[in-house]
Amino acid sequence: MAASLTSSKNFCTGSTSTPRVSFCSVFRPSGKGKTCAVLLEPINKFITKELDLTGFLSKVLPVAVEESSRRFSRTTFFDKTYICATLISIKMLRSGRNLQVLSKNVVRENLRLLSSTPQPSPKDGTKKVATGRTLDKKPVKSSSFVMNLFIGSSNTAQVFPFPDGLNTEQKETLGVLVDPVQKFFEEVNDAAINDSQSAVPEATIQGLRELGAFGLQAPVEYNGVGLNNTQYARLVETVGGFDLGVGIFLGAHQSIGFKGITLFGTEEQKKKYLPKVATGEQFAAFCLTEPSSGSDANSIRTRAVLSPDGKHFILNGSKIWISNGGFAEVMTVFAQTPITDPATGETKDKVTAFIVERKFGGVTSGPPEKKMGIKCSNTAEVYYDNVPVPIENVLGGVGQGFKVAMNILNNGRFGMAAALSGTMKASTKAAIQHATARVQFGRRIDSYGAIQEKLARMAMLHYVTESMAYMISSNMDKGSTDFQLEAAISKVFASEAAWNVTDEAIQILGGNGFMSANGLEKVLRDLRIFRIFEGTNDILRLFVALTGLQFAGGHLKQLQKAVKSGNVGVILGEAAKRAKRTVGLRQSNSLSEVHPKLALQAQLTSKAVEGFGITVESLLIKHGKNILDEQFLLNRVAAAAIDIYANVVVLSRATRALNMNISSANHEEMLARVWCNEALDRIQLNLTAVKSQSQLSNFSTMSQIAKEMCEHGGLIQQNPLGI
Fold it and tell me: What is the pTM (predicted TM-score) of this model?
């Protein structure tokens, strides 16, 4: 933006003989009437490109000069900045005409193709042909911090103060459950045996049933434990610290397997299915992925066609890599169904979710897959051959399968962050135990800077992950439904942080860490899948970036429309915002809730929010709809968004600790301070990269390198020996 402002300033002032015009005086309310009417015509023509810049200035400047000389004797520095900012606003709106392609429907369709977090299809039963009318609506409002980040705004409703998701009774309930679960995994479950046998023994499964572990969040009236999201997070954190394989077994069953019935099921469906799955009498599975559709969830080929008598859907197809797929009796299955528009007679395929029972007939499973990690969790292919599914087993409505799947996955992602924070805690503990006992060169190795840096970074990564998990779960418990970007970020961050923490723990243990007897090598194998399933991290980064850009694009488009309709006040407001930004006046983004000890980090993070919004705006104006294909840029945008959200989350948590003066407050303040300082450097690098000519050239070159490699079928360079 700084470069744009400089060029605008030059063409605004011209030479020393060019009159200095106070556009702000012309656009103030007192300037309404003839003068504004005269100005609106050239403004609109400039926006629609009927006038070039020279023609625009030739028509506007004389009017502005006359009005300014009539009402003012001089022009202040702020007025001159305001003039430039106003022209920038108008120029931006002119350039931004391409933004109309970033309508909700267009971006939604691209996200559906990109994301294995399925996006909802356009509403069924719409009789009107889709047009650009969605752009006439006011921009969608959101309480999500990350969503508002994309318009350069700090909406702190969901991040300050750090939420406490439990009341006294809920804390007492959780307190009763934590110790038995901890004891069970310490004394009964054997992670090494589970891994070596690639199965969970029946005695362990029965013990989990007795704990109520298969229905932690199922309602009490359906034989579940009835925990809220925060209580659930605390228990899966314990599980994640002992055995991720068992964690997947439990999570695939309840976090996604029958979650759809809990969220979208009719009362009859809940009464029929929840009591048995909540007690572990029957197991559940989530069946979406197919050989031809991984991240492209819209391309599933499994089909369900209504039977001639209209009583069943006949299901045919197959699913791969289904957790619990070898033995699940109840499955949430997604299939294409033909839907005819009664108004146009046009038939299109849309995805529908079904509750499928193995006993319906025609359901078979392949052998268990041999995997790198989480070996004790069953993963198998599932086949459906003319399976008759009663019409009453449609889940969430015909054609609403993407909506169902999206909500199931969004609701489950926070649990992954909670579980992996438990994994990180266990790995860090193992590293500390070794570092404080191991003596080399006459000193304990924890006294060396190299080890200290590793341990400190492990602690910071855990602190961020744990903070994200409980921030999101608490907001969900408060009734928030606007957390999809935060949930996606938590999954990406947690899966990568847990890998790094465990990898460093192995490094600290040296040869001992590499041995199977220690257990960390199993943890590392188990962790590898978390960056792949339930939305690969690569796809989720694009999901975060594109969803945020859509939100920002809606705001810019609405601004365009308001200016075209003659609402000069909109130009005035945008010009004021840019002028304040230019002269260094503070915006309303200050994270004032942060404790004074972290005031500097809060101030710099607030500036990063504003800088992020500027970058997003410039990308939208420059690329328009083509931003969908600029994945080098989108990845940097997502990385900056993740770091900014992480900063705000830890600032909030550390502030609570300092305000409450808890025993770890000073330690948490140090974690937050160092984390934010380093994250701010990364944010600056990523935001700079999207406009740096050298970086853009590198991106183009890397794209060419990859193309040539793929054409060649491998690495192109020869061995240096030539042999």
Answer: 0.84
